[in-house]
Model the fold of this input.
Amino acid sequence: MKKVVQRRTRLKGEQRREQIIRTATKVFAHHGFRGATVRQLAREAGISEAMIYHHFPSKEALYDAILEKKMERTKHLYFPTDAARTKQDRSVLETIIATFLREQSEDNSFMRMLLFSALEGHDLARKFVRKPLQDFFNFLGAYLEAWMKDGSMTPLNRQVAPRLLLGMAHFLVLLREIYRDPGIKDVGIEDLGRLIVDIFCNGIMEG
Done:
C-alpha cells in the first residue's frame, strides 16, 4: 500500500502576505506589540519565522502593513463621497456610523491593537491619529461645516463636530465589544447606528 503524503498548500506571495497580516492583527490584538513575538506569529500562521521576515523585515513593518491594509479596505466606506456630493446628508452620517459599528462588531482586533499601541506608547496609534483619522475628521468636518453655513446646523467648531459624532459610536463599541456591558448587548447594530445619528442631528440641527 502506498503511503499518502499530504502536501502543505503553497500560497502565492500576495496571498501569503495577506495571511500573515490577518494572523498578526489577531496576535497583536491579544498580546500587544511588546508581548507578541515573531516566533508566536509564525506558529499561529503555520509558517516559519524566515517566511515572515521574507515579507516583513521587522514587527514595525508588519504593524505599518496592517494599518495600510485596514485603510485600503475600508476607505470607500468611511468616505462616502458619492452620497456627500449629492447632498444625501443623513445618508452620509448613517453610512459612516453603521460602517464603524458593523466593522467593530464583526472583528474588533484592529481597535484592540490601537488600544494596546496607545497604552504601550508605540507609534502605531500616533500614526493612525496623525494621518488616517485626521483625513476622516477633515472630510466629515468640511461636510458638516457646509450644513452650518446654510443654517441647517447649529454653528460648531468644525474640528469638534465630527469628533462628537464618532465619539458616541466609539464609546458604544467599547461598552459593547470590549467591556461587554450587558445593558446594550441585545440592541442591534443598525438600531444603535440610527439612534446615534438621531441624537446628533436632533441635538444640533436648527429648528
Observations:
- Confidence is low (pLDDT under 50) at residues 1-8.
- The domain at 67-204 is CATH 1.10.357 (Tetracycline Repressor; domain 2).
